[in-house]
UniProtKB/TrEMBL annotation:
UniProt main location, coarse: cytoplasm
GO annotations of cellular component type: cytoplasm
EC numbers on record: 6.3.4.4
Source organism of this protein record: Clostridium estertheticum
Family, similarity comment: Belongs to the adenylosuccinate synthetase family.
Binding site for IMP: D13, E14, G15, K16, N38, A39, G40, H41, T130, R144, Q225, T240, R304
NCBIfam families documented for this protein: PRK01117.1 (NF002223), purA (TIGR00184)
GO BP, one annotated term: IMP metabolic process
Subunit structure: Homodimer.
Name used for this protein in its record: Adenylosuccinate synthetase
Cofactor note as given: Binds 1 Mg(2+) ion per subunit.
Group of enzyme by EC: ligase
Gene Ontology molecular functions: adenylosuccinate synthase activity; GTP binding; magnesium ion binding
Pfam families according to UniProt: Adenylsucc_synt (PF00709)
Length: 428
């Protein structure tokens, strides 16, 4: 039996989709525990590339159960678009393959509208959200006015809650934010249709996940976003609205911490981020541009160009601490091939001393100056390497430095988007 977590150690887009798909071969159940369709996870199987947002990345195996946990915010429109997309590619998405928690919060049209209008109202201080309604939906959850999947299943409950919520939201939308009121009947009719389609997939997932672990099955928890987008430990306020760190699994899937056996931190061999916010090792020069082009660093969900920079071990060390990461899966090391010199950040100079943790205050972070170590690069394309031995010596030195600094071993190295472009150094 094992219950292991695969989560992002940086600002998202580390290759969690690829690693989840790869590791899901040895799992029986794959569970998403937070986030929503703000995520964009790419999985490549053979010659086909799949873009997933809300559905767990284990879905491409026909015999695995994929679970959307209670910690996820579910946009039914996005859910069915994704199911239809997968059906169009020949995947039959049945309740045997996909389960949705009756406790998940539902993203409503007013959440998306508010996400958009708040961003406009913030002006130059906007967050750069994906505008999928994520923040407003989580706000309602904690404010206790959210509509859960179990509420959606009950016509009268939905009607009552939608009426109350829409009256308040329309006031905010029109009177505070200058937007256009949304129509009750349109939303109600639409969501009743969604409810009917969703019903066969809806279950108490905590029971299912718990029973699976107890029955000796392997359960993989797939993170969305990354450590620095965590609502508590990320670069607040330029974060998402959920707990992306390992602790999020317990609350977002309804299991206790003693059941978790290992935590795999997915780390890109360099750093990227989408949207606004601080980024100490950002490269706003031709090297950054070179990495973006070579690594094809463009967002899966919004298409925005990702900002690129050197690997920051302060971030990885912090991620290892807050999530109890037991090993790293290092991805996209192939992208760096061809650079003569490669830098790694091993600390920040801050107020006359050197720190190796990520400060809470953005003002403090802005004063941090990265301290770099410089490494010789490797020329050879390593996309064809299939074992650690086949990696160039300088790539091995690079990986060793990650292990030394963070005190966490590298268990997997990925040299391309495909399943077979993966080498396992130690079993998880
Ligand atoms: P996620 O959000 O963490 O699942 O990552 P994304 O799918 O948003 O972005 C990662 C991108 O890198 C995708 O296009 C993947 O297909 C691709 N990818 C994953 N691992 C590797 C790798 O080792 N090398 C290369 N070149 N691409 C990779
Ligand atoms: P995956 O799972 C990268 C970023 C947005 C924005 C901030 C808040 O593919 O790694 P939100 O819409 O969540 O309120 O936006 O978080 N963001 C991501 N960045 N990868 C993601 O997901 C992201 N999901 C949200 O760009 O800066
Ligand atoms: Mg992504």
């Amino acid at each position: 039996m094992s219950a292991f977590i695969v989560l992002g150690a940086q600002w998202g887009d580390e290759g969690k989709g690829k690693m989840t798909d790869y590791l899901a071969e040895g799992a029986d159940v794959v569970v998403r525990f937070q986030g929503g369709n703000n995520a964009g996870h790419t999985v490549v199987v053979g010659d086909k590339e799949y873009k997933l947002h809300l559905i767990p990345s284990g879905i491409l195996y026909k015999n695995k159960l994929n679970v959307i946990g209670n910690g996820v915010v579910v946009d039914p429109e996005a859910l069915f678009k994704e199911i239809d997309y997968l059906q169009g590619l020949g995947e039959n998405i049945t309740p045997e393959r996909l389960m949705i928690s009756d406790r998940s919060q539902v993203i409503m049209p007013y959440h998306k509208e508010l996400d958009n209008l708040y961003e406009i109202a913030r002006g130059k201080n906007d967050i750069g959200t994906t505008k999928k309604g994520i923040g407003p939906c989580y706000t309602d959850k904690f404010e206790r006015s959210g509509i859960r999947v179990c509420d959606l299943m009950k016509k009268d409950v939905l009607k009552e809650k939608l009426k109350t919520n829409l009256t308040i939201k329309n006031d905010i939308i029109t009177k505070v934010l200058g937007g256009k009121a949304l129509d009750f009947d349109t939303i109600y009719t639409q969501y009743l249709e969604y409810a009917d389609r969703m019903r066969p997939f809806v279950k108490d997932i905590s029971v299912k996940v718990y029973d699976s672990i107890k029955a000796g099955k392997n359960v993989l928890f797939e993170g969305a976003q990354g450590t620095l987008l965590d609502i508590d430990y990320g670069s607040y306020p330029f974060v998402t609205s959920s707990n992306t760190i390992a602790g999020g699994v317990c609350v977002g899937a309804g299991i206790g911490p003693t059941m978790i056996t290992s935590v795999v931190g997915v780390a890109k061999a360099y750093t990227t981020r989408v949207g606004k916010g601080p980024f100490p090792t950002e490269l706003e020069d031709e090297t950054g541009e070179w990495i973006r082009e070579k690594g094809f660093e463009f967002g899966v969900t919004t298409g925005r160009a990702r900002r690129c920079g050197w690997l920051d071990l302060v971030i990885l060390k912090s991620a290892a601490r807050v999530s109890g990461i037991t090993s790293f899966a290092v991805t996209k090391i192939d992208t760096l091939a061809g650079l003569k010199k490669i830098k790694i950040c091993v600390g920040y100079k801050f107020e006359g001393s050197i720190i190796d943790y990520f400060p809470a205050s953005l003002e403090d972070l802005a004063m941090c100056v990265p301290i770099y170590e410089e490494f010789d690069g490797w020329d050879l394309s390593i996309a064809d390497a299939r074992s650690y031995e086949e990696l160039p010596e300088n790539a091995k030195i690079y990986l060793k430095r990650i292990e030394e600094f963070t005190g966490v071993k590298v268990s997997i190295v990925s040299v391309g988007p495909k399943r077979d472009q993966t080498m396992v150094l130690t079993e998880i």
